[in-house]
Design brief:
By secondary structure, the protein is mostly helical. The protein has 20 helices and no strands. The longest helix is centred in the N-terminal third of the chain and has 35 residues, at 2-36. It is globular. The two termini are 15 Å apart. Residues 481-492 have low confidence and may be disordered.
Length: 492
């Protein structure tokens, strides 16, 4: 357990640092590309990715998750899974190409044919690296994965910006999107030095295929629930509307996406190895959950309060229509932060069927919410989305923890502290903005407001709510100063 704990802590720190860097890269590229390209350019690519992203869920058929959840995977199993992944990726690529003319007709936009064909190649490149990535994740080499992630993001972003500067328009976004999996997979092969053997029958991958199939179906249902609104907006309101809504959505979800990426892989891998130890998995998950909320909620509240300044600084003056959408989506992102970590717990415990049942309930609820708002445009969709998600949070928590070592009371106690601290800090920073904000430039106003929020939030969380020792314990764990006997979670 000591080795697992230390490897998880080191890996978690590497992932957090990498995702922090990735956050800066994503925001920086968004700031630059939003000024070089028009909303319609983002909308054209968004129309395609919203649809073929559905197929993207099948690219590894959940086999990466199945491979990590297993304590041991043989060479024969890994090689067979590799060829299954590659076959699935090739089929998805061909299916996407076949869909291209139909997408163009659906959206009444002929330019989407070649955009779809180009982006479809990503399925093959992604598939070729699934088992290499799973190998590194299973062995908890998260530092290597973090370096690869930063390298692929940086290189693809540089290419996208260069193409935009040279006037390629929406093709700059296509090039950036396609190059990222090419570099990522190439680096995975170079790092692992693993060459798959030939596929074999009878090597015991049947249970992993069933596990992976359930994970994939779960992801499919969730993806439809969380992305159908972009397809509907594109169909009924046009590419420009999708571009504006999509950038507001991206800006609001960057914190959640980055934190889930940084902590999720480490948490799932570590929790999977504790699945038969209820006490340790309870302690570990609650501390993971507390850390995720403590980091995600303040950033989301900041985007809601300072939406106008954030859009002006990050996206530029031609994106002001995104401001009310960003504010209306804030409750949705808070809900994501509260419910997403439970998927790590359920998958680690092998309860993928429950996760699928939950997805089958949430999908019609969310879709109904933004269908009601669709006639009112992107603001109506954002409001309907947030209302539906807010209604679902508590039932989701109750269902997820039922029959586990974790109680609803445990979760509510964890949620209470960052929510209360965020509310107090938000009120203080909003009052400051209303009092003096009109005298400052948007960038200065954003810096001052965020600074005031941060001071108030940390003061309330660490001292007002008595969480100082808890976070100092995590910091000591990151520095490797914890004793062997301390039950520090195998997390970040």
């Amino acid at each position: 357990m000591k080795d697992l704990k230390q490897r998880a802590i080191r890996g978690g720190l590497a992932k957090v640092c990498a995702q922090g860097t990735g956050f800066l890269i994503r925001v920086g590229s968004l700031m630059i590309l939003a000024r070089l390209l028009d909303p319609k350019d983002f909308g054209l690519v968004g129309m395609v990715t919203a649809v073929i992203g559905l197929l993207n869920l099948f690219r590894d058929f959940g086999l990466s998750t199945a491979a990590v959840q297993r304590v041991g995977v043989t060479e024969e199993q890994a090689s067979t899974l590799f060829w299954v992944n590659l076959l699935v990726g090739t089929v998805l690529c061909l299916l996407s190409i076949a869909m291209a003319p139909f997408l163009a007709r659906f959206y009444h936009e002929p330019r989407l044919v070649w955009v779809t064909i180009a982006l479809s190649l990503g399925f093959i490149f992604n598939a070729a690296g699934v088992q290499h990535s799973s190998r590194l994740e299973r062995e908890m080499h998260f530092t290597s994965l973090s370096v690869i992630d930063i390298l692929s993001q940086s290189a693809s972003t540089a290419v996208g910006i260069t193409m935009a500067l040279r006037g390629y328009g929406y093709w700059a976004l296509v090039g950036m999107t396609l190059l990222s999996p090419v570099i990522y997979t190439a680096c995975l092969w170079f790092t692992t030095k693993w060459t798959p053997g030939r596929p074999r029958r009878g090597v015991g991958i049947g249970s992993m295929l069933r596990f992976g199939g359930t994970v994939t179906l779960n992801g499919l249902v969730v993806y439809v629930a969380y992305n159908l609104e972009k397809i509907l907006l594109g169909r009924y309101w046009g590419a420009e509307t999708v571009g504006i809504y999509g950038r507001a959505y991206q800006l609001s979800t960057i914190p959640t996406d980055n934190l889930n990426s940084s902590v999720g892989g480490v948490a799932f891998s570590a929790l999977s190895r504790l699945q038969h130890d209820p006490d340790r998995i309870r302690t570990s998950f609650l501390k993971i959950y507390s850390l995720i909320l403590a980091l995600t909620l303040p950033i989301t509240i900041i985007f809601a309060i300072f939406a106008k300044d954030a859009v002006a600084v990050v996206l530029g003056p031609k994106w002001q229509q995104a401001v009310p959408i960003l504010r209306l989506l804030a409750p949705t992102v808070v809900c994501f932060a509260m419910i997403n970590p439970f998927s790590w717990l359920l998958f680690a415990l092998g309860r993928v069927e429950r996760s699928l049942k939950i997805a089958l309930v949430i999908a019609p609820l969310v879709i109904t919410g933004y269908l009601i708002g669709l006639p009112f445009g992107p603001k109506g969709v954002a409001l309907g989305y947030s209302v539906a998600m807010s209604l679902w949070v508590l039932p989701n928590i109750v269902w997820c923890v039922h029959g586990t070592a974790i109680s609803v009371k445990d979760i509510l106690l964890v949620i209470r502290r960052p929510v209360l601290a965020g509310g107090v800090a938000g009120a203080a920073s909003l009052a400051l903005q209303l009092s003096f904000g009109g005298l400052l430039h948007p960038l200065a106003r954003l810096v001052v407001g965020v600074g005031a929020f941060g001071v108030a939030y940390l003061g309330m969380l660490l001292y007002g709510l008595g969480q100082k020792d808890f976070y100092l314990e995590i910091v000591r764990g990151l520095r490797g100063r914890a004793t062997v006997d301390e039950k520090i979670p195998v997390t970040v």
